Amino acid sequence: MNITKAKITKANTLVATFKNENEDNVTVEGKNLIHKDLRAAFDELIPHLTFLCEQKEADGKDSIDELPEEIFSTFEVTGYTIGGSDDNTGVTLVGKRFLKSKKVLNLIAPFTMFNNENEEYEHAFELQQAIDACNYEVEQYLTAKKWAVVQQELPFDESAPTDIVADPVEGAAFEEEANEFLKQVAEQTGTTLIVNGKKVKPRHSRSKKVKETAA
């Protein structure tokens, strides 16, 4: 898949553009949340955004390893666009810097070629590798349904009766006391009990009826 553009939205979904076999540009707007691996791949572009936009954190630094760890909380890469062809193929990074004023400074890095001898960016090869990793995760999102797994609570219908089965117990007095306790549980939870094969419906207290009437 020839991916030419990818963007993570504010809703943490993905918008991507790729060329099909007819060289037509196809844009897909995903509705599913991105996987953490896709976000991690985009984060690997942050050092390059810092260098290419000549941010103060890159002053006097020669290698990516010299950049402070704080850049990963100060900057965010939201997208990239791949352009050019052959030796002129390169990428434009788009991101933002979070300011102390709680505002955001939008950043667009200059177009940077991967394998051109005239390219002055010293980390162009590492940039290309990072983009390849992003493209892989984008393709996984589009074709392999590699999305974030959202844990959802199971819906609970309070109006639907829930059966609680009580095992028979020996002793009439104890059984009567146990059944009375279960009836109280039924009243508090709105469930239907089954005691020795017989359904015991919950009784509604007068106070509850008064509240319902007042409402």
Detailed description of the structure:
The chain is of the alpha+beta class and 215 residues long. The protein folds into two domains: 2-143, no CATH class; 163-204, no CATH class. Helix content is 31%, strand content 25%. It has helices spanning 36-43, 46-52, 71-74, 124-143, 172-189, 206-214; strands at 2-8, 14-19, 25-29, 75-83, 90-98, 104-108, 112-113, 163-166, 192-195, 198-200. The strands form two sheets. Strands 1, 2, 3, 4, 5, 6 and 7 form a seven-stranded antiparallel β-sheet that branches. Strands 8-9-10 form a three-stranded mixed β-sheet, with helices on one face. α1 (36-43) packs antiparallel against α4. The longest helix has 20 residues, at 124-143. The protein is globular and about 75 Å long.
Short overview:
The strands form two sheets. Strands 1, 2, 3, 4, 5, 6 and 7 form a seven-stranded antiparallel beta sheet that branches. Strands 8-9-10 form a three-stranded mixed beta sheet, with helices on one face. The model is unreliable at 189-194 and 205-215 (pLDDT under 50). It contains six helices and ten strands, in the order βββαααββββαβαββα.
Keywords:
6 helices; alpha+beta; 2 domains; single chain; disordered C terminus; 215 residues
- Structural class, judged by helices and strands? alpha+beta
The ordered string of helix (H) and strand (E) elements is: EEEHHHEEEEHEHEEH
Q: Report how far the terminal alpha carbons are from each other.
A: 60 Å
Total separate domains:
2
Shape: globular
The major pleated sheet works out as:
7 strands, antiparallel
User: Could you list the spans in which at least 5 consecutive residues all have pLDDT below 50?
Assistant: 189-194, 205-215
Output the radius of gyration. Answer: 30 Å
